[in-house]
Queue: 3 jobs
Job 1
Amino acid sequence: MTATQDPPRLGVVARVRDHQRAWLEETRRRALEGEGFAICNADEFEELFNALDIPVLVINPWNFLIVAQGKAAHFGRVLEARGYTGPHFFALGLASTIAPEQAPRGGLPTPAFVLGTTRSEAELRVTELWAREFGVPCIPIEFNLASPAKTLPSPGWWQLTRDRWPELTDPARLELRLDQVKSALARIEALTGKALSFSRLADTMALVNAQVDLVAEVRELIAGAPRCPVSVRDQLSLYQPMWHRGTPAATKLFSAYRDEVAGRVRSGVGAYPRENHRLFYASMREDPSFHGFLQAEFGAALVGTPYLAAALTYARTVYDDDPLRALVARQLFLFAQTPDWLVNEAQFLRCDGVVGVEPASEYPSALARACHAAGLPYVSVSGTGDSDATRRRLREHFRRRG
Amino acid sequence: MSGVLDEVRRRHDRRDESAREWRAAGGNVLAYMCDNFPEELVAAAGLLPFRLGGDPGAPAPHVARYVAPDRHPMVRVPRFVDAMLEPVVSGAQGFVDYVVVPHGRRAVEACYESLSRAPAAGAPMPEVRLFYLDKSHVPGYSESVFDHHCLLAFKAQLEEWCAAPVTDDALADAITQANHGRSLLARLNRLRTCNPPRLSGTDAAMVYALAGAMPRAAHNDLVQRLLDDAASLPVRPGRRIYLAGSPHPTPRLYRLVESLGATIVGEDHCWGARIAGCPVPVTPSPMEGLADRYHQRPVCSIEFPLDRALERWQASVRLARPDGVLVYVVDGDELHIWDTPDRLERLAQDGVPSLHLARQRPADDVKLRDRIGAWLNGLPTSP
């Protein structure tokens, strides 16, 4: 964000960054010493690997690191040279293994395996090709949070995710995935020499729920404070500990996050110089470049994104002493980006408008229609850049709002 | 010129005519979206199975208005998917009573939610009842059990819709008829793979497309008459080309290639010779046989591991003995981007020349014709 005055960053952001760096270096060291480490997609197997004490690299954070280092174009060319016509964000990690010279942090050591995903036909192939590049097995597991639900989530579905999750889960898919996860675990245990402990997994699931509670406190603090205490940029940075959910380290980071935000609220510190308009940023992309323009021109602040609400959907109540079933059910349904969910979040955060990022269309999206029905002014832009077209669109929006 | 071929072309121009007639006569029509589909169950339930398709080059204004604005921004949708949706969403195919969406490509499976929500968005489509037909993309015993149960769930849904049981006898009859049709299509395909070929890829593609649009008995009769007429078909000199890559629901590219003097003698996409292949195995229970075939065949060409898909494909190419392979991948095809380099490598190992056309859009016909023409002219002459 480029504003007249950059908001003060939370101190815990630096702790998270340091933790990430130290964790990656530690993982690298352990892998180089011969300890098996894993690569998997986000929101799939992290808790299981943490419970197994197997270091895990989650694919998209690694890809985001490549983007943050300005190397996406380079690795796009690497893919093109292999015949994979792009661009392909998901395959940046594969590219960093094909040509590791410019990979972040010296590149990835060889994993014991890649956990494949059938989240889409492309992701299935990319994980398989990545495993082949390393010369290690690819273990695919069917169905996941991206698989369309046979019964569309009912209004207010987010109130069911923690305790009434069986209502959101297709029983046949759950049984298949449980079978596949158990088979995968047996194979992983054979490959790494580590064994999953039931009590460790139960503890991990309990820790995840406690961490979600901490994020829920932060969300309520943001919603209730007269001025937004945490910038969107920091909110996104503080999502990173979710990749380590279920670990004591994540609990420490989320506790520090909650404490620092509570302190800011007590002291009346706001993240933004001006807050004439509280806007909900209904996108799961980065803090947009046009945010500075919103601040400077209209005194408008983005006070929330779907990430806060998404974090709450990781919690699951364990029934029948079966943490694996609860976890696998969550792998099948985490959240759905339905318009009612986004509108609910905007209203919870006391927003007076919503900004969406959507392909240009002459027709209103479902989100636009839902905002209109809820009396929330809505404006969509086609990207996160601070382009002339985006500025024109935002100016027109605020002119109409008066 | 064969009179039967004239009939094929005429029927293909009005591909939904049989379904309209079926509906007008009081029958119900069930539309589906993939070549790996248990059409036999649908026929045994007394419904007409109708495969959705359309011209990816045609505008899709109703999809743009009622579907596209609500799609997940991360899902890339190739034009052939919109081409399937447009006639349903617009109401042009108002004869469709039921739509079955497969667990296939992400853009295809997203049609389930799109069709669920389109009426509320104002789409002028009649009410259709939807079913999501699951299938695992991964091989294995647990997965075969799962796929088997998916078909049983589909059978139960059909029985509920039709308020009548799907009997084993009816299913066995439907399987017999469909297997007969597949054997006829396999014979027809030999008119392409023989050297020199006698049947153009364009005409073959139309026959295949009609297989998912006519009652099976009528289609079998059409193919049988075409086979009876085969001796009258002239031989086709010129380059033998195999078409790989994205699906082609219309023969537009076939016409273009064959207008340059070549013949498309084989392909691996889901609107081609795959429709002929893989009869339902004969087992004591027709349902078991159907479930076995459903499990063993890929949906939307999604198959794990890659090597298995490549081996199947390589065998298909070798059977066709092409002078060259045209690998045509359309813009938004998220599947074939990733297997194309391996395919090209296998072709090179077999000494088969290839042309890879990536991220193709339907509007570039003149440039496309020039490019393919130049490639065809440069191919070595067959021994």
Job 2
Amino acid sequence: MTLIPIIDAITQLAPNNPIHTGQFGGDGGWTSYIGLFYMVFMFVILFYGQRFQSYMMIRNVEDSLHKLRGIKEEGRKNAIETLKEIGKPSVDITPRVDRCLDYFTISPQSMDPAGIVAKLDHILEVRDQRLLDDVKLMAPQCNDDVQLHNMENTLEAAMALNYLYKVVRHYYIQGKKTMSLYIIMQLQMVLPMVMKEAEAFSAALTAFSFGQPIGDSVGPLIASKMMRGYEVRKVYKDCVVATVPFEGRTALVMKAEGSGGNCGKPGDAIETVIEENQGKIAMLIMIDAGLKLEGEAVGEIAEGVGSAIGGPGVDAFKIEEMLVKYKIPINAIIIKEDIGDAVAPMRKEIHDAADKAIERVRELVLERTKEGDTLIVFGVGNSIGIGQ
Amino acid sequence: MTQNTQQQSPVNKISSYITLIVAIVMGLAIIALFSAAYAYTLGSEYLIQAGFLIIIGAFALGISVVVLYQTRRNATAIKNEETKVMTIIECKNCGTKITRDFQRGDYVFKELGACEKCPEQKQIITGVYKEIKTKEKTYAV
Ligand SMILES: [Zn+2]
């Protein structure tokens, strides 16, 4: 029977076996072989253990890197297809898109930080304009501002994915070249977060290309719900304001102009509106999507003080300057969401939180302002897919 | 661009590699279990060996089944995540609420055509969102 050798092998391993003891040159022949094997094994582990660990980690990183490349390639293809579909360019735009993907921004020199905000603001403005011009060149047939902004956002998401991929690839190759456990380890440690971010950007790209509201659009959604039915006028660069009678007060409800992908310039817009009212503002309420901690529910609402606005800090700086100048109290309302939810198409929980947030605004206004006061409510975020 | 000419996605390669290993382990486990049965038939002095083989066989079989189950679950989990984005259309007059798939050009508070029941009232998009049905895992802390 073919099974006999296996049984033999097992029986030989068993100690004090009456059948096989002493077959290999006396008592415990096999056991000494095993001992030798363990010795060799121990030495291998001792000297090559770290190398082995490095190989395992590199394989792990490699898997993620391949996945990342897949996501990035899909994003690039998606961006090109959207541009072709909407812009109907006469020439092949692929090389131009690839050039855009490698586009970089150098932040201003900060050795002497005085006046850096204006410099940063200027550079960001130039960057946005440059990107928008590029989109216009790639989509000459498109005259729709909404579509242009959506395509710009799509391109930006593709740029972010491209950058993530390149950085991870850089550290991967460097780790492989040096076989240094520490380089590979650093990469492996942050990789789960990087992958999560990549998946979020990938979801964002699809949402942008279709013009769907994202999780971050909850601020504009709330503002839009509040200003619905009242006259809306444009203020400084891509922002809108409506004068809304609210519980006996006058609420100046503001948001970025929709329904194209646009965050506007909240800093300048709020500055303009405050100056228009000669600083006679009883309160500024900012509503924004905020990152939730693990364990918190999506769509949870939290209240606080301070300028609730993300980005590079230019807008927050400008708003704070104005608040200090006129001593205006500032309140913030945040709708909690995950980083993945913030840029992916809006979830129902976040959409449903909008009405609850308006109730919070009402409470805040009733408790902390007097009748006849004027206040500003700003819905911060990307206005994609949200009209007014 | 040169990126297009690079090798195909290795995801399938990796999963087939794992499947091969699982298949080998499973085969060995089954052989071990058969051997155990055979050893048992040989008589009482082979009882220890039979026990050994049963433990090895059962353990290996268990591990391979778990690995196989996990890879399959991962594959299905990725598919489930693609949820459709819906557009909610309402008529303020009669309160009719329609839910349909999102179409390019939809946005919140866009005015659409007249309502079927009340021709003078325009329908309005009141929401664009996706609903995630799968419940998030909660931790009791
Ligand atoms: Zn109706």
Job 3
Amino acid sequence: MRRRSTRLADAAARTLITLGGLTTIVAVLAVFVFLFWVVKDLFLSAEVGEPKRLGTGEPGASVLVAGIDEYRTIVWMLGADGALTLRVAHTGESLGVRPLVVDGGPRLTAVGKDASSGRFVLGYADGTVRLCSIGFRTEFLEADVVDAGLRELAVDGVRVWGDGLAQRTVRGQFRVQIPQVALDEPVAMVAGSAITAVARSTHDDATVVAAAGADGRVVLRVATKASPMFEEEPAAEWGEPSPVATGSARGAPRFAQLTDLGSNLVLAWTDGTLERWAVRDVRAPRLAETLDVAPGSGVELTSLGLLLGGVTLISGRSDGSVGGWFVTANPTNEVDGYALREVHRFDGLERSPVVAIATSARERIFAVGNAAGRAYAMYMTSEKRLAEFTVRDHEPVLAIAIAPKSDAILTITARGASIRPFTPRHPEATFGSLFGATWYERMPHPTHTWQSSAGTDDFEPKLSLVPLIFGTVKATVYSMLLAVPLALFAAIYTAEFLHARTKARIKPIVELMASLPSVVLGFLAAIVIAPAAEAVVPELVTAVITVPVAFLLGAHVWQALPNSIAVRRAPWRLPLAAVALALGIGAAAAIGPVVEDLLFAGDVRLWLDGRVPAVADGSPGWFLLLLPPSALAVAWFAARHVTPRIALRAARSTRGVAGLLHLAKFAGGLLATIGLAYLAARIVYQAPTILDHPPFDLRVASDDGGMNLSPFGTFDQRNSLIVGFVMGFAIIPIIYTLAEDALTSVPQHLRAASLGCGATPWQTAVRVVVPTAMSGLFSACMVGLGRAVGETMIVLMAAGGTAVMDMNLFSGFRTLSANIATELPEAVRDSTHYRTLFLAALVLFAVTFVINSVAEAVRQRFRKRAYQL
Amino acid sequence: MLEPNAPTAIGKAGSDAKPRSRLQRIQAGEPVETITHEAILAEDPCLQIERFNLWYGPKQALHDNAFVVPRGKITALIGPSGCGKSTLLRSMNRLNDLIDSVRVTGEMRLNGDPIYAPGVDVIELRKRMGMVFQKPNPFPMSIVENVVYALRIDGERDRRVLREAAERALRGAALWDEVKDRLEDSALGLSGGQQQRLCIARAIAADPEILLMDEPCSAPDPIATGRIEDLMQDLRGDYTIVIVTHNMQQASRTSDCTAFMYLGRIVEFGPTADLFQKPRLKETEDYITGRFG
Ligand SMILES: Nc1ncnc2c1ncn2[C@@H]1O[C@H](COP(=O)(O)OP(=O)(O)OP(=O)(O)O)[C@@H](O)[C@H]1O
Ligand SMILES: [Mg+2]
């Protein structure tokens, strides 16, 4: 009977344990799968669907520009005859024609578009231009006006409704899109000459217009009031025209664009010649540079577009290639210090002249169509080809447009228009842009940047995880640097030197430290420690040196004490160590200002910044860095060559004399260390000057966009030092507890054996206990590492949050976890940003998972070995 | 075997009328003189123990012990389990200091130097003694590092010196031939008997003045036990050895002198031959012949 109940309990326990284990595994897997599910969309490729064709035959071969509304219900086409034709996208039915030329007036000869607002400027044969906008007003019909005809509409069905087009929405509402076309008064640019190219750039109520005439004249003019978006708005007020003195020998420019908020005027000719004029001051245009954007014999420039944001020019050439150009800083240009360069290139497209370019109004997607009827949609920054297709009968593409929500592509050929549904998905996120360097607009080189949002709509999110990973590494390294030695020393001390009773009291207290919420620690760090530490930077730097010196000095003085005193007063060693600590800190406070004067020209924060000539000498940084290795080198030398001699002498004299000899050795070693570090610092710092390079200054970041591993740099109040310190304290308890357990589990008989051999408790700890518990200590550190990698609140509150890529001890950083915590609440669901944050979570998860697995594997091995002993 | 803490049949059997036996008096906690044979007193003492008491917290484990360890001889400590043999041995090199609750009175001297006087450097003291434990406890290091451990902690770095010391100690522990080709291998790979001899090698590597062994031959394997006994015969004369053992035959085979302990007291102490053949006390005879214990 009892047997059976035991068996039952056994089986129940086994089932429960198995169930619990399985649940855990399933939960972990589920988290992984969920993260992966959200992330995988990032890497799906874009799709383009089957075309829907509108009526054929018209509008003829003369379309200059075309577009589509945001619900993809109305297509508009502006022909060279000046007629704006509107059509229902579903049926091809006409929604009327609006003339954008005056009856009997000058012909329409050129169209220009503002890259940020999407509004137009039209150029006419008489040398005048008119600002123009083509848009749609959306209205929802009240229930009482909806008639039977509308009511019969299926979802998404459309019907002409007054001037506009009504559509039944998914929610059963009736939405009317009413075309809104505004045309401002004509204004003279190049009077008497037909306009061949025109451009506009609108910003903050000011619109710059540039127009080129057939006679080669180019003129700039500024409208100081917003150009009308809607018909009722007042007309613009125009300033005086100012001529651009381009060389008329080349004839009339074929293309014109105003880039960089209207500060650059780009004029281009079909032979590929491009002139960039600095026109920040509209009244005094200066030619900044002239270059060939269609190199190669017989290659012509066949189109020139401007990407969203108005910075990147898109060049389409007769050989089918497409390029992306923007200005980057270039000191050799004496006019404005910039140079236009082809940063992105799209080769491998069909070899046929690129004749039409369209840009998206939402992201840096653009589409090109060529004379052979092939069209491509591409993402500029990542140079990713998103989609491609061929129009019917390989007709030349006359015009191409991307729908406002980037969800359709409109192509116009002589045979008519067709609309293709388009799903770009997440073109800005590629493996390269997430984990590699990406060349963003106006940057001098590719960079790793995380900047997910900004004030303007045409801002391009920069979603490189590298600076976040770097920040995570930085936080981890600095906090582990503090936590590991402290926690291990504390663990060794409690396990090996404390009485069992004291130990029983101290261990729970340290473990209690772990229960301190990290948000409290972060709060303390940000509000209390950071401002306090800011005031004592030189003292802190000095303390790093004086405290260990104080301890070593204390140990040497102890050795110099007569034997009888040393042995009898042994219990005093701990309080004396505390005194040494206090002395070290006191010394740091006392000589901190002196050190600041000697090393950092009197102001450590100014020195860290390194921009003022008074603090030009960067070698003190090397001095600090080289102090520990110098100390090791000196200690090694002393142990090999000095200590044996002292031992020989000591054997013949008393303990006190020997202690004095050791004390002298210590003082000498200290001086030698300082001297060695100083010398080495000078040598390393000055070495590059032999080859006429600037000295090796740790404070100067290299500007190649890579990471900077120097621990020195400009001081921020919320910096890695603070985070390292506070986060160190957050992970000390866990490392301490696990390490202490590992040390305690070393069998007592090994300690007895070692002590029996005449080893001191310290020697026993270092030579026997620690090596035996090594894997346990290692796994404790790994668990601490896992904690540090995932730690969020402290970093969030005390790290400042700038995603930089330097190891500067005195600056902040942004970690994966803190970034997720800050940005996920405001990320738009299913956006690229959102999914990228999930990717960050996945990376974090993977890293902590690996770390914890390694820790566990090591621990298992350790257990097996401990069992053998 | 006698249960030391429980009142035993002996206690009950003895009626008030009969003179009580020594063991009964010990059980009653009365002070009892140690019977020490004169032959011992004539020996040159290596270690002397004077009126030594030891308490584990409130419990007294050693009572008023007086004892000498003759130089160059093997001294065996025998007695029932829990009588304090290990405690006495561990007191000699002050390993008991590790236990917080331990309190001692009295004095011991190693070659005339006090062991318990205030101001004694325990570390230096322990370096003058070697200790071998009941359970082999090699360090998880290589064989050679195990052997030279005592030299290493003394700061010896010279490879040649270390190597020679290791060889000498291993030869001394009759282990050299077995391990000379695998000196760098982990000591944990040795058999139990080999591990124990390695521990002996470790204990003699630093030329201790006295070697303390706590049941070093308790390995279940008779061949291994035999080898260690042989080894002790080899060491006899060169080293002063104190050995704790449960095994009467072993004590009589290997030792020169034997002390019989009971409930924390040394009851009788004499040359092994005398103690085993003509013990002065009946109690000793009873124990040796297995009539109790
Ligand atoms: N650490 C300790 N704390 C408290 N009491 C102890 C401790 N170690 C030993 N004792 C007690 O002291 C007495 C002597 O123990 P000891 O280990 O010296 O006996 P022993 O003669 O070596 O026995 P055995 O032959 O079984 O090894 C025993 O009663 C034991 O319970
Ligand atoms: Mg014992």
